[in-house]
Amino acid sequence: MLHIDQSRAFARARDMRPTGIDRVERHLAQALASTSSVTGLVRSGGRVWHGPVDELFEVVDSADVLDLAALATPWRDATRRRRETALRQRFGRGGRLADGFERGATYFAAGHNLPTYREMAVLREASVRLAILVHDIIPLTHPKLSRTAPAARFQERMTGVARHADVILHLSDVGREKWRTAFGPPPPGQMHDVLKLGPTGAPPLTRAPSERPEFLALSTIEPRKGHDLLLDLWEQFPEPPRLHLVGRRGWHDAAFFRRLDAAVASGAVIEHPDLDDAGVRALMARCRALLFPSVAEGYGLPVAEALTANLPVIASDLPELREIHGERVRYVTVSDREAWMLAISPFLCDRLVAGGGAPDLPSWDEVALQVRAIM
């Protein structure tokens, strides 16, 4: 039996808009549940609940549950407490980490909300196989682009994966080689493979770019995503086009956010922190290109979604993006501001510069079958 961990979705229930990893975890869990016999699990507060994948997502997505204990313990996350109450109401008290796994079962995590090193050892001692999808190891390869405490926690979890996992899935051959560089040759019996993901957006759309040039950047606003470069470029335009930043503010220095606030006040930059999927697609239809100046990526889900929607993409020249998306993308050296200006220039005059073509990506049911075959 395959047990898929939905703890990341549960832990991030208070966040209004999902990140790329959130979307992958949900799509893959639902596809696995629809194509084969799997069960879901949620880890929270030292307890584990097992249940049908869709029913666990119902709890994750549920409205407020009356929980007087949450009101009496304000130091705890109230949203999480309410959902723990919903889990108890639906699935009982929950159990210890290794409870609910039959001998020889497989634990599968498609997100980075992972058990600790010690918890992984406990699962192995209970004869549970561990399969982990590693989206990237950016906190290890680019520590200056990550906050200190989360990076240390990430290091501990990934060390546990390297030591205890039976199967490690990567999103590209480049990612697999970076893992080998960081952790060395795998221990005997550990299998590594590349999982080709599908797009999480809707089918191609009919583009109708506005008369005034508009561009789209789609990601959490944090240092590695290159928003500082975009602000540098927009400050150089005599008559700046409109730039839509879709994504919530993450961590950054105060000086950057002051610059961003000034750009928003000028009207050249528009922030959309909580835009839903329909709103994103409406912007994709209006904008002339997706700008993706990221410093480091594991997959680049916004690139796949833009290409699927027939939106041209200008992106940093990263090996992961080249491997996954090929020549459908216009690549620019991440730090070369002049090259970025040259890449954007044709889109200022031409409303309908052709996109790079739809990517050859599998459906999520096909991704689920890949996972099953690898297991």
UniProtKB/TrEMBL annotation:
Record keyword GTP-binding present: no
Protein origin, superkingdom: Bacteria
Keywords linked to the UniProt accession: Transferase
Keyword set includes Isomerase: no
Record-level Gene Ontology MF annotations: glycosyltransferase activity
Name of the protein described by the UniProt record: Glycosyltransferase
Source organism (scientific name): Pontivivens ytuae
